Every structure is written in C-alpha cells, then in structure tokens.
Amino acid sequence: MENKTVTPEQEVPAPVNLLEPDIIKGLRVVEKILNCTNEQLLSRQFILERILEFGIVRNKNKNLARWTNWHNSSQFGVIQYPTEFADFIKQLLTVDIETAAEIGVFRGASAYVIAAFLQRRNPKLKYTMVDIKDAIIAYKRFSKLLNLEKLMPATSENILGQSFDFVFIDADHSYMGAKGDWLNVGRYANRAVAFHDIHGHEYDKLNGGIVRAWDEIKGVLVMDHSVFEFAHSPIRWMGLGLAVREGC
Questions:
Q1: Please, what is the Cα angle at 33 between 6 and 240, to 5 degrees?
Q2: Rounded to two decimals, what is the model's pTM?
Q3: Which among 61, 64, 151 has a CA at the least distance from the CA of 105?
Q4: Cis peptide bond N-terminal to 153, omega within 30
Q5: Among 169, 217, 211, 162, CA closest to 190
Q6: 199 in helix, strand or coil?
C-alpha cells in the first residue's frame, strides 16, 4: 500500500535528470553496508552515516528541517527521521532474520537500506517488498546487490497467514488498514514485527489511525515480546515501533 508521511504538497518537484545521481549514491551506500566490518555493523554512528549518505527524500516538512543538508535532489530517498531509523536498525540487527516482508514500500529507499543491513548480518536473507502500487525506483539495479523479491501490486491479503522472521508494516495508515496488515501477516512474524508512524497523528481522523492500532497491538505484544519505541522528532510525529519475540 502506498504511504507517504511527507505529503504531496510538502514535496518539492525535481527534474528527472536529478534522479540518476541519487540512485548511484544509493547503490554505493548499499555496497558499503554489504562490505562493512563487524565492528561497523554494530556501530550506531556507521548506521546513521550510511542513512544520511543514502539521503532523505526532498521535502519541505519543517520536522525534517534540521536534516536539510542530507536531503536528496530528487524524490528518491528514505522517508524516515534519521536517528529514529538508525536506532531501529541497530536494535533489529540483534535479531537473527532470514526472511522478511515489508508491507508498504512506496519508492523502495527505506527497504533497500533495511535489507542491506539485514543481508550483511545474514547473507541468506530474502526481503519481500509488498505494495498496492509499483512505484519502486531502480528495483532491478538494487536487486543485483540485494536478495529482494517484489510483490506488486499486492497487499497483505496476498500473503495472508505466511510466516516471516520479520514483518515491517508501513502501508495503509487507517486504523482498519494497519490492524488488517497485522492480522493478515504481522502477527505471524516468527521473531520481530515493526510499525512505522506510531506517532502519526495526522492519521487520527481515520478512526484513530495507526496510533490507535499500534497502541492496541502493543498491548498484546508486551506479553511475550520486548517492545521498543523510537521517537526523536521535536513533536510527536513519525516514530517506529519494534517488538522482538522473547528468546530471539
């Protein structure tokens, strides 16, 4: 399911010819991650530096103003709050993950970064990218480096009941949409499950949105998972929730 925390009116149009340099930069970052040392893989500084080097999607959102120096020239880049994303990935790397599914990848940048780090930890990783619309950028080029599978157009209903070590839900941000993705595939995650925009109050009008869904699901997960929340924005915005099953 297509998702953008940075709304269309906040995006700054960029000439098409600006896209290629950002793709090339992203590919180089993925190569750096895949070839990093064990010490670098465990380093928050290294993780954050690679996120910033990959670049943030070009936008005018005031909550990302402090990261302007790392905005890409094009609309290809991560749509994440960088330090939240770094801490999230660092924690995720403590889990042994061989199969993963991301529900709602949009243009694919954040998925490429996550997949690169997980694949560096486990070369057998298979990362499945699911979205209702195929808007992904440079899939063929990144899939030469990463063990990716693209399932588009599709929703979590197309992988209903399938079991993955890790599931990342970042799709329909309505309450019913997020809850549906959880019921379809998230609850079957063997080791870890995560949600993006756990503080995305801009979706509250959608029957409570992702905030309500995460609060309810978190209440279930805490019984047998360690639950982490990463929220660094000056106001309650974006945010990542990660639940790691006990013993993993």
A1: 35
A2: 0.91
A3: 151
A4: yes
A5: 162
A6: coil
CA angle 148, 97, 81 (to 5 degrees): 75
Residue with tokens 């409570």: 208
Token pair for residue 201? 């109050």
Amino acid identity of 165? D
Element holding 177 (H helix, E strand): helix 175-184
CA atoms within 13 A on the CB side of 247: 3
Note the pLDDT tens digit of each residue in 8-23. Answer: 334 444 455 789 999 9
How far is Cα 91 from Cα 44, in angstroms, rounded to an integer? 10
Residues of the chain below pLDDT 70: 1-16
Q: What is the largest CA-CA distance in the chain?
A: 50
Do the beta carbons of residue 96 and residue 119 sit within 8 Å? no
Q: Which amino acid is located at 237 in the chain?
A: W
